[in-house]
Amino acid sequence: MPKKAKTVPASQDGLPAIPHHKLQRLRARLPKKKLFVALAGNIGAGKTTAAKLLSQSFGFELFDEPVIDNRFLAQYYADMRRWSFTLQLEFLLRRIEHHELIGTVRKSCVQDRTLYEDPEIFAKYLHGLGHMGDAELQLYLEYFQRLVKDIQQPDKVICFDVPNVEVLLKRIRTRGRQEEKGIQPQFLRGLNGYYSSFPEVLRSKYSVDCLNLDVTEIDIRSGKGREEFLDRATTFLAA
Q1: Which of 78, 122, 121, 113 lies closest to 94, judged by CA?
Q2: pLDDT in tens, the chain (239 residues)
Q3: Which CATH number fits domain 34-238: 3.40.50.300, 2.60.40.10, 3.80.30.20, 3.40.50.11540?
Q4: For the chain, what are the domain ranges?
Q5: Which of these is catalytic: 64, 69, 79, 112?
Q6: Residue 150 appears among annotated catalytic residues
Q7: b/e sequence 175-197, b meaning 16+ C-beta within 10 Å
Q8: What is the pTM of this model?
């Protein structure tokens, strides 16, 4: 009787496990040095699932996006004009804390959402919508420049692209965060405009290598989609 294939333990979210021998082959392709990998992408693109998948599969230390415990998120979605500047400062401080902690961790780390999306996408977009004034944006960028001087940059960034905002909205509804119920398609469409150039901004402005993946048709919660994502991510991280 053939032996049953080993699998890694199923994750707490109930996602299907990956055969042990496949994971072993993927792990063997990764660099032996410590890696700092970050995920980027629009709201609902799948960053959190991907970060957890990389952590579970490769043993990376996971740094979650500071959303669930954010003290200003509910107020922000209720009144963006009042709370946009405050929320951006809150996210900046929390992400700086992540970078400082990552510098002290000996093993490889994965971060759910990059530090650079706030100044390059969210702050500029919220300013363009009139939710942040000129002085607020300038002050935020001054804080950013001062705080990032000595932090460790990611070695690699994986940016998820989902051009179809209906797909984003479906994923947002599926995960069911109360604060996100009022997100409108036009808001996501505007963010996508900034995300279209974000990989090149990372490369040219911050000298950070970036893999841009269209995950519109890839469900990384499924066995096939998970394996495809891990294979492409491994190839990128090993380059």
Answers
A1: 113
A2: 444 434 444 444 555 567 888 888 999 999 999 999 999 999 999 999 999 999 999 999 999 986 656 788 889 988 999 999 999 999 999 999 999 999 999 999 999 999 999 999 999 999 999 999 999 999 999 999 999 998 999 999 999 999 999 999 999 999 888 888 889 999 999 999 999 999 999 999 999 999 999 999 998 988 889 999 999 999 999 99
A3: 3.40.50.300
A4: 34-238
A5: 112
A6: no
A7: eeeeebeebeeebbebbbebbee
A8: 0.89
